[in-house]
């Protein structure tokens, strides 16, 4: 459903949020290792997240990536998805067809409208803080 870059972006943001709750900045190497992502690919994803004001990048010997506690409540998964994948998840065809709409629907069109609506609701209502605290208390897992 999400691109691989988007999956890694969500995992990276959640990991950074979790570490930020403990007052830690994390390096790209640590993030790549923890989310099981190639380092160069992770660096590009982190650039996108920084550019879109989702995470903060601090340069220097004590630098790394972090997320302010206040931002964790306001950064919803929808913002991460939009920063990396755009809005195609909300408007694209469920079968990947170029021409699919209410006038010329694919076989999944009507069913996919409901799925897309529920997905949008979930992404817009789920915060990084919610996910990071779920990890922190061991209710959810980030690695495979």
TrEMBL record:
GO cellular component, one term: cytosol
Lineage of the organism: Bacteria, Pseudomonadati, Bacteroidota, Flavobacteriia, Flavobacteriales
Protein name in the entry: Rrf2 family transcriptional regulator
Gene Ontology terms for molecular function: DNA-binding transcription factor activity
Organism encoding this protein: Flagellimonas alvinocaridis
Tree of life domain: Bacteria
């Amino acid at each position: 459903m999400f691109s691989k870059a988007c999956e890694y972006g969500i995992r990276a943001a959640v990991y950074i949020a979790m570490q930020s709750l403990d007052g830690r900045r994390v390096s790209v190497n640590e993030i790549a290792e923890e989310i099981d992502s190639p380092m160069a690919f992770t660096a590009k994803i982190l650039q996108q997240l920084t550019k879109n004001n989702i995470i903060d990048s601090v340069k220097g010997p004590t630098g790394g990536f972090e997320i302010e506690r206040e931002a964790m409540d306001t950064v919803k998964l929808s913002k991460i998805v939009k920063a990396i994948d755009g809005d195609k998840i909300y408007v694209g065809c469920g079968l990947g067809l170029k021409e699919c709409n209410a006038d010329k629907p694919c076989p999944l069109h009507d069913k996919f409208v409901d799925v897309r609506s529920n997905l949008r609701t979930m992404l817009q209502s789920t915060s990084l803080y919610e996910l990071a605290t779920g990890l922190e208390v061991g209710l959810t897992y980030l690695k495979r």
